[in-house]
Each structure stands twice: as structure tokens, then as C-alpha cells.
Amino acid sequence: MSRGYLIRRLLAIILVLAIVTLAVFAITTILPGNAAIMILGEYATPDAVAALERQLHLDQPWYMQYLSWVAGILHGDFGTSLRLSQPVTQVVGEAFLNSAMLALTALAAVIIVAIPLGVLAALKRGTVIDLAIGLFSYLGTALPEFVTATLLLVFLAAPNVGPFPAGGFVAPWEDLAGFAAHVILPAATLGLILLAHVSRQVRSEMSEVLASDYVRAARLKGLSERRVIWRHTLPNSLAPAVAVISLDIGYLLGGIIVVEEIFAWPGLGRVLMYALENRDLPVIQAVTLLLAAIYALSNLVSDIIIAKLDPRVRYA
Amino acid sequence: MRRFLSSPSAVVGTTLLVLVLFAALFGPLIAPYDPQEFHPLARLQGPSASYWLGTDQFGRDLLSRILSGAPATIAFGVFSTTIGVVVGSLIGVIAGVSSGWVDSTIMRILDGLLAVPDLLFTLLIVTVLGGGMEHALLAVAVAFTPGMARIARSAVLSVRTRDYVRAAVARGESGLYIVGREVLPNALSPIVVEATIRVSFAIMIGATLGFLGLGAQPPSTEWGLMVSEARQFMFRNPWCVAIPGLSIATAALGFNLFGDALRDALDPRRSH
């Protein structure tokens, strides 16, 4: 992977994000409802509305509004939340940290569970175990997050019976056990869809690699079965799984909106839902841009990991 | 056809799909009770001889509500996907056929739109349009358009340089004839496969919007809305969230498996 390739990819991401800013701005400026009236209430005097419009630059043409918004972003200033009267960077920053903890827990759980599951299914191909894992993963892809979340709540968080809290958040630096108890159900919900995709991908790729010449050669050399599988087969089966995970980051980012809403997890999804309900434009714009940036960057990171896993992959 | 039905996932997918489509077409007709009728003495019951799938918080029969909600839920998925596929394919075909700066401009815009996750995109559009079933349907269609355009474009590109297209160009056929008679029919199968699989996503997103209160509105029996209305009572009767939830999963699974099987049948190179 050459440096030129990386620079070109980063430039492409910047171009994509520039287009996202335009699209988001277009969508949010045609939102019905005057932002000034939203803040001041229906009974505000016309003078007060006009004054606030000037303060928010709503009296300027759209391209001026857009340019001053983009200029602000480039200086790290996303404006002020219309509802919370706090800088957007502060509101979104805290929420981002909470969401990142949830998403990374889900991702880690997926990697720990899905890869062995896929390996198991490939080794036991055609048996009842393989079929069971397959059925489980198909079910995982067909259950929307809100259904999984609700069912998990019913069975694992019933009042007085269930072992887990029904929602809420505890920071890990305050109480690690409390954090773990709160994160488990939302992370399991988010992980289920990815679990299905990743374990299927590992299974099909493993089956192919197991039938390859170099695995046969490794076996003929008299290497132990464990070494053949974990050292020769698995590392060569992981690249497509990484590609699937990076595509699934999109699902994960969408799923987080629903999951946080259901489990009252104070992250980006909750902030977004709150902002959408209250027409809090600066917050909507910032969250959308942030999620798009994460998605684009995760695609780049996955391409880099794939190139590291498989030296044959060359990006010019 | 026999080859198509030889794989187990095709059989399961087709069976589920037939079941779901039957419910969508005839569900309201065969429902044993009026879906909105209260049975105050039989609230929050589990499955029994008189209420096969149990009852909800007002004693309404869950089986009847599921059957009467099937058309709304399934039609949402099918229609939103259809609109997204038609508009997206049109854009994709234009990009694929025109190439040059038109193609690259369209592709850059699509890249930007694709960077926004589907559900987030849908939520933004629903907020602009205001909630409700029709707006939610339109929002999902718009959110699907960029992805479909991309697939249609690559399908067109793979066909564009084939000999039969070159022959048509050499014969001096009009551009519209070449696109309509030579390129499009041959680029259709990946589009159809992708569309079938996407119906399952559309059903799930539609139900999610219903659940969030941004799609179907009460007293609709759309399945996502049913889950959200029953949530308060889920600890007293898990059936009233499990039944609509599993119905959504069945519908999504049916379209998903059928689409996968269709891909294997239409493109033998990909099946192992």
C-alpha cells in the first residue's frame, strides 16, 4: 500500500464528506418550521423573531448560511444547540464517547463469538451443528433491532426476575461492573446482525481454504490439526470477514439509533432522536456528518487491515 | 425451476414467501375476529383454543391483528423498494450509458449519499416530510435510490462492451433502442436479485419507523406499531410483542432467502 494511495483515499473521503455536508444542509434547510419560532415559542413578538433570525443568520441567503456553517466546522465550531443552549461540540462529543463504548463492545463481542462460530461451522460442515449455526445466523439477519431488543428485555430484564437492568448507563470509570451490566443487552442487540454476517463469511471462506493445496501440504507435513487450522487456515480466511464488518458498520451506526432509544443509552442515537423531534438543526447536521465520517473512515481502515492480512492484495 | 428448488434455503425461502404473500393478499378476509374488537374479559392472554395466538392489552385477538396488518406491512416493503429500484435504476443506467463527466458527477454524488447509513437517511427525510405511512414509504424509497443506482450502473457497465451491444451500435440503432432492447434486459438480473433482498430491509425499516412512531399511526395494525403499543404490557404477556416481532422476521427472512436463492439460480458461477 503506497503513500500515494492513502493520500488519494483520504482526499476521496474529504470529497464525500463535502457532498454529505451539502446534502445534509439541503435536507435541513427545507425542514418545515422556522427555527427562531421553534426556540422562542409560538407567541413570540415579530421583533424578537427577527432579532433571533439575524443572530442565527437565518435572514441571509442559503449559500451564505452554508458557507458560514462549513467555515465554522473547519474551525471545529459546529454552532450552538438551539434547544440545549450548549455548544454542539460539547453535546455531541459526550454522546459520541458513550456511543463509541457501546459500538466497540458490540464489535469486540462479535469478533470473539463470530469467528470461532464460523470456524466451527466450517469444520462441522453439513452436520446438525452447522445447520443450527446457519439457522441462528439467518434469524439474526431477519430480526430488526427493536424486535431483538424488546425480546431480550422481556426475557432478561423483567422486573424482579431478569438479571439485567432494563436501560440506562453507568460510566465504566465510575463502576465497571455496573457498566458491564448495562452494556450487555444493547451490545448483544447490535451484535446479532453482525454476528450472523461475519460467521457466515468466515464459514464459507474457511471451507474454501480448507480444501486448498497449501492446507493439504501443511497436513502432509504432519503438522498438528490445531496448528493447521489456527495458523494456516484461519488467517487466510479472515480478509472477507473484515470486508463484511466494514460494510456492516453502516448497519451498526443505524442500529445504534434504535438501540440507544430503547435502552436509554445517552449516545449519538438518542441525541439525534431528540434533535429530530425538536428540529435542533445544528445538532442534526453535526451528528449526521459525524456518522458519515465514521463510516467512510472505517471503510478505509478495513482496506488497510485486509492488505495487512493478505500480502497479495495490492493497492496502487 | 427444479434446480432452483434443489437447495434447502430456496425451499424454505419460497415457502415463507408464499405464506407471507398469502397473508398479505387474503389475511384480512380469513381473520377470525374483527382486529379492533375489544374482549374485556380476555385481556393479555396466551394462546388458547379461542384465541390461537393470544390477545393484547384490550383483549384484541392477536392472530386477527397480524393477518389484518399483513397487507400494510408487506406492501410497504414492496412498494418502497419498487420506487427506489425504478428511480435508482434509471439514474444508474444514465450514469452507466453516458460515461465521462456525467457518470463521474453522478457517482460522486451517490458516494456522498451512500456514506449516510440507510436508517439515518430515512429518519432525516421522514423528519422533513413529517411522519405517516406514505411519507415513510417515500423516505425508504429515496434512501434506497443511491445503492440501487450503483448496482444498476455496474450491471450496465458489464453489459455495455458485449458483442451484441457493439453489433447494435454498428447496425446504427438509436441510443434508446440499444439501451431498452439490448442493455437493460441483460443487466436486469442483478437488479432483480438486489431488489428482492432489499424488500426485506424495507420491511424491517418500515416496521422500525412504525415502532418509533414515525411510520404507521394507530389504530393501524402494522406490525412494528403493534410491538411498540404492546411494549408496556410485555412483561405481563410476552406473546403480544413476540408474535408481531416474529412475523416481521418471517417476512424479512422469506424475501431474504428467496433473493439469495434467486442469485444462485441466475448466476451459477457464484454458487458453490
TrEMBL record, chain A:
PROSITE patterns: ABC_TM1. Gene3D superfamilies: MetI-like (1.10.3720.10). The chain crosses the membrane at residues 100-123, 135-156, 176-196, 237-263, 283-306. It comes from Arboricoccus pini. Residues 96-302 form the ABC transmembrane type-1 domain. Belongs to the binding-protein-dependent transport system permease family. The keyword Transport applies. This is Peptide/nickel transport system permease protein. It comes from the Bacteria. It is a multi-pass membrane protein. Keywords: Cell membrane, Membrane, Transmembrane, Transmembrane helix, Transport. It is found in: Cell membrane. Signal peptide: none annotated. GO terms for molecular function: dipeptide transmembrane transporter activity. Its main location: membrane. InterPro entries: BPD_transp_1_N, MetI-like, MetI-like_sf. One of its GO terms (cellular component) is plasma membrane.
From TrEMBL, chain B:
It is found in: Cell membrane. It comes from the Bacteria. It is a multi-pass membrane protein. Residues 70-259 form the ABC transmembrane type-1 domain. GO terms for biological process: transmembrane transport. Keywords: Cell membrane, Membrane, Transmembrane, Transmembrane helix, Transport. GO terms for cellular component: plasma membrane. CDD domains: TM_PBP2 (cd06261). The chain crosses the membrane at residues 12-31, 74-97, 109-129, 135-152, 195-216, 236-259. PANTHER family: OLIGOPEPTIDE TRANSPORT SYSTEM PERMEASE PROTEIN APPC, PEPTIDE ABC TRANSPORTER PERMEASE PROTEIN. Belongs to the binding-protein-dependent transport system permease family. This is Peptide/nickel transport system permease protein.
